[in-house]
Amino acid sequence: MKFSLLGFLLAFALALGVGSASFAGPLLGDLDNDGVDDLWDNCQGIANGTQTDTDGDGCGNACDADYDQNGTVGASDFATFRGCFIAGTPGNSGYNANCDSDDNDTIGAADFAAFRAGFINGTPGPSKKANRVVPFCP
Ligand SMILES: [Ca+2]
Ligand SMILES: [Ca+2]
Ligand SMILES: [Ca+2]
Ligand SMILES: [Ca+2]
């Protein structure tokens, strides 16, 4: 039987789970210990095992306070967050799931801390997700 080098590498990559959506093999790197490999973590450096991304831009809610999708976290995003915070829970006027950074269906102190971090940083991310919408998510 004859194996090509390419065939061997492909089999090796498949065995590692490289490129698959559900990564079951050993992690190649996981700086934030959330169980998602750094290579495609949508919030690199912040533990967000669910990878929730309600606006679908490739930046996880845990690091995406850019609610108006203009690439920066600024005054208009603060206004949105303020409305979210006052609303508190789904169903209330002003509630926006994009503000729920920790995925607990409530906008509270932890979400404010995440927003604050994004505001200080000035931009959403960083995300390593391959199909993220750049520049909305650096
Ligand atoms: Ca993460
Ligand atoms: Ca997002
Ligand atoms: Ca913004
Ligand atoms: Ca929350």
Short recap of the structure:
The protein is mostly helical.
The share of residues in helices is 25-40%
* Average pLDDT level: 86
Main sheet properties: none
Count of distinct strands = 0
How much is the radius of gyration in Å?
18 Å
Overall geometry comes to globular
Strand content: under 5%
- Overall structural domain count: 1
Bound molecules: calcium ion
Count of separate DSSP helical elements: 3
Summarize the helix and strand pattern as letters: HHH
Description:
It is a single chain. 28% of the residues lie in helices and 0% in strands. By secondary structure, the protein is mostly helical. The chain has one domain. The longest helix has 13 residues, at 75-87. The protein starts with a helix and ends in a 17-residue tail after the last helix. Residues 100-102, 104, 106-108, 110-111 line the site of one calcium ion. One calcium ion is lined by residues 66, 68, 70, 72-74, 76-77.
